[in-house]
Specification:
Helix content is 32%, strand content 35%. The protein has 4 helices and 6 strands; from the N terminus they run E-E-E-H-H-E-E-E-H-H. The strands form 2 sheets. A 4-stranded mixed sheet has the order 3-5-6-4. A hairpin with a 2-residue loop joins strand 5 and strand 6. The two termini are 22 Å apart.
Length: 92
């Protein structure tokens, strides 16, 4: 069966497509992450979920490529949403 994760705004993704969920403040300071996000932006593969202050970015596989969603929702809130039906996984 399929589970979906609400990223904010009107964006919902299949959890099977999610590669990773990252804190934007803590991870975007590294050179490789900056390069990755910059390249994704140049290739029009970044979707801003909201115009509020971004707190996370979610890397997803879509049709054999990568999409990056920028969200105003924190990593901890997204994690709670993702594992709401699985308390064992939520503790890891």
């Amino acid at each position: 069966f399929f589970m979906y994760l609400h990223l904010g705004g009107d964006i919902i993704v299949n959890d099977k497509d999610i590669i990773g969920i990252f804190d934007i403040e803590n991870t975007s300071i590294g050179k490789s992450t900056k390069d990755f996000l910059s390249r994704a932006q140049k290739e029009n593969k970044v979707i801003n979920v909201s115009f509020e202050m971004p707190k996370s970015y979610i890397v997803c596989e879509k049709d054999g490529g990568i999409l990056v969603y920028i969200s105003q929702i924190s990593v901890s809130t997204l994690r709670k949403r993702a594992f709401a039906d699985s308390p064992v996984l939520a503790k890891n």
